[in-house]
Design a protein that fits this description.
By secondary structure, the chain is α+β, with helices and mostly antiparallel strands. The protein has one domain. Strands 1-3-2 form a three-stranded antiparallel β-sheet. Strand 2 and strand 3 form a beta hairpin.
């Protein structure tokens, strides 16, 4: 199984589950945040004052587009 297959179908995931080595996207945190600023990567959702997450559907769409 690839990390992409291990993503839930819906819901929210934290950054540690998105980026390598645990996640399917092989970029650094700084590259990820720069990509969000540039519009290449999906924007996060604030779930609380110190909790940032991403919609699984947005991450799956990014991977399926293959524009990493």
């Amino acid at each position: 199984m690839t990390p992409f297959d291990e993503l839930p179908a819906t819901g929210f995931i934290r950054l540690a589950s998105i980026l390598a080595p645990a996640g399917p996207i092989p970029v650094s945190k700084s590259t990820w945040w720069a990509g969000i600023k540039d519009g290449r990567f999906p924007k996060p959702v604030k779930l609380g004052p110190r909790i940032t997450a991403w919609r699984v559907e947005d991450v799956r769409a990014l991977i399926e587009r293959g524009t990493l």
